[in-house]
Amino acid sequence: MADSAESPRAVVLRSSVSSVRALRALTFDLSALTAVFLLVVSPMTSGPGFRADLHQSRLQLVRWWPLLLAVLGVLVLGGLALRAVATRLRIDGEGVQLNEGRRLRLRWDQVTEVRVRRIRFSRNAEDGAPGVNVSYCLVMRPVTGLATPRHLTDSQGWVRVWELGSTEVVPLALEVALSGFAGDRWRHDV
Fold first, then answer.
1. 174 and 116 share one domain
2. How high is the pLDDT of residue 112?
3. Res. 4 pLDDT band, cuts 50 70 90
4. Residues linked to residue 113 through DSSP beta bridges, in sequence order
5. Is residue 62 situated within a structural domain?
């Protein structure tokens, strides 16, 4: 008889999803404000008296189109840049991959421990400065002798896999996947 327990599903996270949403919201807000200014406010204040003139609005659009195009271009290029630098994390039954394995690939038999660690940044931060120099990361300790990317590995041998930000809260889907795939390697204490 088949085992009734379901195996956990693979988890895929992208670091820039919330950033792209914020950029879309900013694009909408800037577009709406620019349109209101060019179509309503500017024509009302440019001539004698306060009146909205459709002909004046068209002239304003013609006059300001390079600025509108530049703002739109910056927003589009910003969105593309966010997508290009996004980190993609995949955790499944085989192991962990960052950016389809181009940046990091660890199989579960190559990992001895997985946990959330508090990371302190020394850049322009004094000891005891509240909050600004502390972040939490999902980290893994690989087996002894395994070569790992130097820019992701700290002095104690931990490999930084995923930035959690200023809180140690692990997203639920990620915690379920780690509990299922990493087994007793996964420790949630900070």
1. yes
2. 94
3. very low
4. 141
5. yes
